[in-house]
Amino acid sequence: MDMRSVYLDTEMMLFIECKELNETLREHTERLKLKSRQVASDGTIEFE
Q1: CA–CA gap between residue 42 and residue 37 (Å, rounded)
Q2: Rounded CA gap, 4 and 11, in Å?
Q3: Tens of pLDDT along 8-47?
Q4: DSSP code of 38?
Q5: What one-character-per-residue DSSP string does 2-25 give?
């Protein structure tokens, strides 16, 4: 889900206009982001 993929990869892109699906995906993505590890520019994992 990034602009680099639009030009360099052979992925398929879809456009779905649905407020409910959009909200569900945003909530799910936010939960995943909160559980993700943060990585510093030198490649080390940052701990809270």
Answers
A1: 14
A2: 11
A3: 766 667 788 999 999 999 999 999 988 888 888 898 888 7
A4: E
A5: -HHHHHHS---------HHHHHHH
